[in-house]
Design goal:
- It is built from eleven helices and 22 strands.
- The protein is elongated.
- It folds into two domains: 268 residues, Aminopeptidase, CATH 3.40.630; 112 residues, Alpha-Beta Plaits (2-Layer Sandwich).
- The protein is an alpha+beta fold and 405 residues long.
- Its cofactor is Zn(2+); Co(2+).
- Keywords: Cobalt, Hydrolase, Metal-binding, Zinc.
- It comes from Morganella psychrotolerans.
- This is YgeY family selenium metabolism-linked hydrolase.
Length: 405
């Protein structure tokens, strides 16, 4: 028989730990932790996990931190990537992005919404589980993952493929504004290379200007973006040209190569092969003899490990009646006595590997809001930390109850 979930006590405990979560989040924010430079924040998280009573804490060869609560046969995971993007133009910040700020309602600083707030709530959910004796026939794995901002999902490719860890489902704590998210568009990183022949700039007719050849391609890409496929739930696929490169002997010469990077967002039903082929089929690409390829990622983690992957991050979604949605719906209604909002992410998450590549169901519930991600003056809400800590503490038992239906 499944344990009864003491919803009121969970909410009370989560509120009790608001100050501890705030302190812990501000400690993480104060440690710069861009992708591949997460060592210090990983060790700070390890310290907090051990302090609140996690049963086991490991750091894997890639540098991901893995904290365990309980010893039951059903493995449930909750994930937060703990790397951040940089701060951008410091003039756009109204406060120091690492010193941060707080008032009665909010905490500011780089990583507060995206997404170290999720880690703070998860660690104290573990504390709540321990305090209230909520262990059951499950093991809760709390992961603090690395390199997500550089290469979303790479960390979980490693966890699944090399650590050989395969949970029954995963809760992503990326920011959802305390709503339940059940999918996202996929993405891929594409490059177009156009060849040219250099010559002196005073006689351009002697050469073949690669930059001019790229011009018509850019126009056709813009038009292609308007006719990409659409899904009723996830929306339309998109593309944007995000970078442009060239080579030329000098400013007084014709460019002998030009290349662009494309950020391609894939909606349901689109494939990486199709996305490449539709660009290769553009008349201007054919005329310029453009070469269309997908990027690969081969950057070393903070431990020095290199785990190469192609820059393709699959689309995924779970259906509205999926057991993950029902599990979180049960927990949310029990804790807060109201109906949750169910939606989707606009951006990409580690779900691209967990479910997109490996078919392990993912569901989202996290503190903070999507528009805060990568923005100056990033912030999150203290009440969100409390709400999410309560949810994360209740979800395992809610799942056990769902299994027994």
């Amino acid at each position: 028989m499944a344990k009864q979930i003491p919803f009121d006590k969970i909410v009370e405990k989560a509120e009790h730990y608001k100050k501890d979560m705030t302190r812990f989040l501000r400690d993480m924010v104060a440690i710069p932790s861009e992708s591949c430079d997460e060592k210090r924040v990983i060790h700070r998280i390890k310290e907090e996990m051990e302090k609140v009573g996690f049963d086991k804490v490991d750091i894997d060869p890639m540098g991901n931190i893995l904290g365990y609560i309980g010893h039951g046969p059903h493995l449930i995971a909750m994930d937060a990537h703990i790397d951040t993007v940089g701060i951008g133009n410091i003039k756009n910040w109204e406060f120091d992005p690492y010193e941060g700020m707080e008032n009665d309602e909010i905490i500011g600083g780089r990583g507060t919404s995206d997404q170290e707030g999720g880690m703070a709530s998860m660690v104290y959910a573990g504390k709540i589980i321990k305090d209230l004796g909520l262990e059951d026939q499950y093991t809760l794995l709390v992961t603090g993952t690395v390199q997500e901002e550089d290469c979303d999902g790479l960390c979980w490719q490693y966890i699944i493929e090399q650590d050989k860890i395969k949970p029954e489902f995963v809760v992503s704590t990326e920011p959802t504004d305390c709503q339940i998210y059940r999918g996202q568009r996929g993405r891929m990183e594409i490059r177009i290379d156009v060849p040219g022949i250099s010559c002196h700039g005073s006689a351009p007719e002697r050469g073949d200007n690669a930059i001019f050849k790229m011009g018509p391609i850019l126009g056709e890409l813009q038009q292609l973006g308007k006719r990409l496929a659409t899904d009723e739930f996830l929306g339309q696929g998109t593309l944007t040209v995000s970078e442009i490169f060239y080579t030329s002997p000098s400013r007084c010469a014709v460019a002998d190569s030009c290349a662009v990077s494309i950020d391609r967002r894939l909606t349901w039903g689109e494939t990486w092969e199709g996305a490449l082929e539709e660009i290769r089929a553009l008349p201007a690409v054919k005329a310029a003899k453009g070469v269309v390829t997908m990027y690969t990622y081969e950057r070393a983690s903070w431990t020095g490990l290199v785990y190469p992957t192609e820059c393709y991050f699959p689309t995924w979604k779970v259906e509205e009646d999926h057991f993950t949605v029902k599990t979180l719906d049960r927990a949310f209604r029990g804790l807060f006595n109201k109906e949750p909002v169910v939606d989707k992410w606009t951006f990409s998450t580690n779900g691209v590997s967990i479910m997109g590549r490996h078919g392990i169901p993912v569901i989202g519930f996290g503190p903070g809001k999507e528009p805060e991600a990568h923005a100056p003056n990033e912030k999150t809400w203290k009440d969100h930390l409390v709400t999410c800590a309560a949810m994360y503490a209740a979800i395992p038992l809610s799942y056990m109850a769902e299994l027994k239906k």
